[in-house]
């Protein structure tokens, strides 16, 4: 998905799940959480193109990151 789709879908999910508790901030939290797995694209700026593609679908798009990252994000709420 492109970043705009990640942002929109995350904002909708945040509003659905956290809207009553956090109000408009829920959309911000949802959009940030939805873009979290793509944080590895920043590291791709410093390596050649073929390695950047492999790096982008690396650890942040794995089940390990999902199992560790989401509970850590959930504890912050």
What would you note in describing this structure?
- This protein is mostly helical.
- The protein is 68% helix and 0% strand.
- The protein contains four helices and no strands.
- It has helices spanning 3-22, 25-35, 49-56, 63-75.
- It is elongated, with a radius of gyration of 14 Å.
Give the CA-CA distance, first to last residue.
26 Å
Task: Assign a percent range to the helix content.
Answer: 55-70%
- What form results from the Cα inertia axes? elongated
Tell me the radius of gyration: 14 Å
Beta-strand level of the residues, as a percent range?
A: under 5%
- SSE topology string: HHHH
Mean pLDDT, as a whole number? Answer: 81
Number of helices: 4
* Biggest pleated-sheet summary: none
Topology:
Blueprint: H1 3-22, H2 25-35, H3 49-56, H4 63-75
Helix pairs in contact: 1-2
Which short descriptors sum up this protein?
single chain; 77 residues; mainly alpha; 68% helix; 0% strand
């Amino acid at each position: 998905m492109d970043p705009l789709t990640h942002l929109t879908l995350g904002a909708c999910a945040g509003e659905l799940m956290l809207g009553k508790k956090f109000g408009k901030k829920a959309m911000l939290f949802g959009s940030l959480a939805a873009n979290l797995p793509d944080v590895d694209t920043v590291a791709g700026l410093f390596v050649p193109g073929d390695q950047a593609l492999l790096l982008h679908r690396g650890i942040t798009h794995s089940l390990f990151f999902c199992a560790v990252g989401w509970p850590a994000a959930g504890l912050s709420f």
